[in-house]
Amino acid sequence: MTVPRLPQPGETVLGDRLGSYPGGKGANQAVAAARLGGQVAMVGRVGNDRFGAELIENLDRNGVDSSGIERDPAAPTGAALIYVEDGGQNMIVVAPGANATVGPADAQRAAARLGPGDLLLMQLEIPIAVIESAVDSARRAGAFIVLNAAPAQRLQPGLLSRLDALVVNEREANALVVNEREANALGGRERSPEAAAAALRATGPRIAIITLGSSGSIFCDETGVHRVEPFAVKSIDSTGAGDAFMGALAVGLAAALPSAAAIGFANAAGAAATSSLGAQAALPRLEDLRRLFGVDVPSLEA
Q: Rounded to whole angstroms, how far apart are CA atoms 16 and 4?
């Protein structure tokens, strides 16, 4: 629902338009990657209900292999309630539904599709135990492993050290790297993005990436901390921007682009996604990036 401003606790705000769109971080990122030229298969769960059927049909329409999606007879399809204020900022509450019933067998089905040169992309809307299992299997298969650590929660160092790339926004980054003692020392302030990126990489992943919204992105790898500049666009709704970024990043990394180039491509996709309403509805295609920013990735044709 669009609102003139986001409500404060205990406050009622009159909204404008109520819309229903396909969503979910995993599905959004799968569609984003497919629209940008990736060959994508998704593994997960939906409910045995109308919403679940619609989500699967939408994946199929967007060129995502949905054969790995199970329909759970006991749990409803997950849903998110989203308020979007003028200017594009949002507030989101997620009811996990069938996402919470994803289990080890689902992880094994995902890993069975992987081989050297493939990429496994995961999010934290499924149980951590499932992510752990999928990471172990993906490493044995020789796949590149990317975790979008959202929604924010603390993660064990043993998991982080097995990732090729970890991607978070600023709030999520501080949730991962600031402990109670540091929080007291900071006095309510957050680390700088540069310091947070370096601290994240020190937890184990080969590449730590922090998205900064309209300010672009920062990443830290073995060569140090680097900033990747943003793309200017008139923002209407930021809901799908992070997922557009993740889908584009996965496509770029799978195509063996250098980190800075893959993240620049992802910045363009994230910016483009804010130019219209909805999550999956706003996810860009390559022609959108060419039209808006003159961005192209010729090596994806290889």
A: 8
Would residue 16 show up in a list of annotated catalytic residues for this protein? no
* pTM: predicted TM-score of the whole model, two decimal places: 0.88
Biggest CA pair distance of the chain? 54
Domain locations in the chain as residue ranges: 24-44+63-69+101-301
pLDDT tens, the chain, 302 aa long: 889 999 999 999 999 878 888 888 999 999 999 999 999 999 999 999 999 999 999 999 999 999 999 999 999 999 989 898 887 788 888 899 999 999 989 988 888 989 999 999 999 999 999 999 999 999 999 999 999 999 888 888 899 999 999 999 998 998 887 554 454 444 556 678 999 999 999 999 999 999 999 899 999 999 999 999 999 888 888 878 999 999 999 999 999 999 999 999 999 999 999 988 777 888 999 999 998 988 765 445 43
Spacing of C-alpha 89 from chain mean position: 17
Spatial separation of the C-alpha atoms in residues 67 and 74, rounded to whole Å: 20
Domain 24-44+63-69+101-301 annotated CATH 3.40.50.300: no
The closest of 160, 148, 117 to 246, measured between CA atoms, is 148
Q: What tokens were used for 6?
A: 């986001």
Out of 164, 221, 237, 243, which one is annotated catalytic?
243
